[in-house]
From TrEMBL:
Regions that span the bilayer: 82-108, 114-132, 144-161, 173-190, 327-352, 358-385, 662-681, 687-707
Residue span, P-type ATPase A domain: 208-308
Entry-linked NCBIfam families: ATPase-IB1_Cu, ATPase-IB_hvy, ATPase_P-type
Protein name stated in the entry: Copper-exporting P-type ATPase B
One Pfam entry name: Hydrolase
Major enzyme class: hydrolase
GO BP terms, alphabetized: copper ion homeostasis
EC number from the UniProt entry: 3.6.3.54
Alphabetized UniProt keyword annotations: ATP-binding, Cell membrane, Hydrolase, Membrane, Metal-binding, Nucleotide-binding, Translocase, Transmembrane, Transmembrane helix
Organism for this UniProt entry: Arenibacter algicola
Residue span of region Disordered: 1-55
Amino acid sequence: MDDNKNHKDKKMDHSKMDHSKMDHSKMEDPKSTDHSKMDHSKMDHSKMDHSKMKHGDHDSIPMGMAGHDHHKMMIADFRKRFWVTLVLTVPILFFSPMIQEFFGYSFLLPGNPYILFALSTVVYFYGGWPFLKGLVSEIKKGAPGMMTLISMAISVAYFYSTATVFGLRGEDFFWELSTLIAIMLLGHWIEMKSVLGASKALQLLVSMMPAEAHRVKGDTIEDIPLEDLLKDDVILVKPGEKVPADGIITEGSSYLNESMLTGESKPVKKDENDKVIGGSVNGNSTLKVKVEHTGKDSYLNKVIKMVEEAQKTKSKMQNLSDRAAKWLTYIALAIGFGTLAVWLILGFPFVYALERMVTVMVIACPHALGLAIPLVVAISTAVSAQNGLLIRNRTAFEESRKISALLFDKTGTLTKGDFGVTRIESVNEAYSSEEILRLSSALEQSSEHPIAVGIIKKVKENKVTIPNPENFNAITGKGVEANVEGKQVKVVSPGYLRDEKIDIPEDAYSDAAETVVFVLIDGKLAGYIALADEIRPESAEAIKIFKKNNIKVLMATGDNEKTAKAVSEKLGLDGYYAEVLPHQKVEIVNELQNKGEFVAMTGDGVNDAPALAKANVGIAVGSGTDVAAETADIILVNSNPKDIANLILFGKATYNKMIQNLIWATGYNVVAIPLAAGVLYSSGFVLGPAVGAVFMSLSTIIVAINAQLLKRRIGKK
């Protein structure tokens, strides 16, 4: 990975990216769950066809709250249709002569066939409506799939059974019709529910900006809506507030937390004439800022645009069950009409030949195929959540087994995201490390400097009582001093020691990623405190696991070169990229993909959002922003890099279960359809509808049990 190490020094020009090489064909994938492609202004929600909604049609949902609510309404619609159908299916099964004969009981009411017809008509038109509408949609697209197969089966069953009620000799299939619709509604309801959560990333990016700004007008301050803010307006940013817009500080100085925007791990000192980014969080000082960019020209909006563009180019794996259904549709139609023709040619009565054809057509749509994928999806989603993995994009989860390169953000991902104390060392026997921490905390308790914040955090963790300082004084650019409990205490930089001709201990800088401050008591060096954005203890072990599985591990961070190099060397990464901006992270992902890598990006900040969207698999750590989480395909609840290893292993297991279930569900047809057609008629065996029902039920049970085995698989990771 030397190429990657060398790449860290390159200045990446996003404007020079060769967009012509991008695979725009992927953007037209009708199976894509990409919401960002839509022209929402042209969307007429009143005319949206709820019935067409299934997992393969998610691109019909508008992005944003309206689309999110619409998706919820459609799930509720499937749920309602399922329960109504299920309630009606119970009496249909009970009064069905074929079921009564199979179970050996008899309970027929006057007008029994008409009762079954009436109940089944409601089931067919109400419960089956989404599939019938889906049939029309698939035929228009010239892409028959699951909807076509389901519609064909229920329509043949309904109209043939209706004909038997009104004079045609034969047995009805109302029971098969109702159970098929009920189980298919359940399968689609489960699947839609499991993939709910259409990306809200762009909304969340916008929500990072405050709703109002404090505009300075002469001696007065007025609160105005953010959209009324104009270029060159002067705004007041109070301590702890978010900066409303990009601009330049005209008055004041403060430390701003930009970690969720730029990846910088510690608050950045900003003085007059320094630029500030909209969405960053102000420290403990008041600032006046002259607005430079608002609206579409702002840094945050540029990130939003990149997220949108990256989502447009994300490819999706075609739904496996739809592919199986497409072929089963062709096979069922061919064998069904072939069966009718053969039996008629052989001289059998039309009614007998028709019954053989109907049996083939109904059996061709096994209940197991409708549940093969949704059951695995539902179980894997639930089990993953229990084990720290929240799956938002099923396709990406399935494809996690292909990951060949992992690109990590540093801050908050490989590291904890806090500028904390890593070491406290005493060089004077008179003072212990605990005493050095206690005395220095007296000087740092009212400072907003990141070093001070880190020291106070350590004090609180150790439950140390902070003494009161006297005669506090700032040593310009070099530290602070005060009298504490009768002692003169100074917390200073290495530069102060050099100026005062005090030797710096040889082991003070054992880690290039650390910042070190020195504590002087009564003019003598007592010890020092080292601080850094601490590396997660799990990171090193996780990287060993990835390398063992031949996965390249790289890091892209907005942090400085020195820190990035130190973290990379400590963890033994294959390469790193330092001081990169959001668009450069996207370029890195794109570059790796162009080299043939299947890339997973892991991050937690707004600056990671475009790269998370662009990567083949985007993984957000739970401690990060909602923006990163909503852009990512998978979220690590516990922010543990080792969970990514579990993700890859469990993704492989889940995919295998889907393939196994599809093989079984379609394999059932390979045996059942020829038998129903009568290939063994000469041997005295023809598969009857009742026996076909037993095989159908057995197939469904096997698929369900196999899916449940996933729960055991995750425990063996």
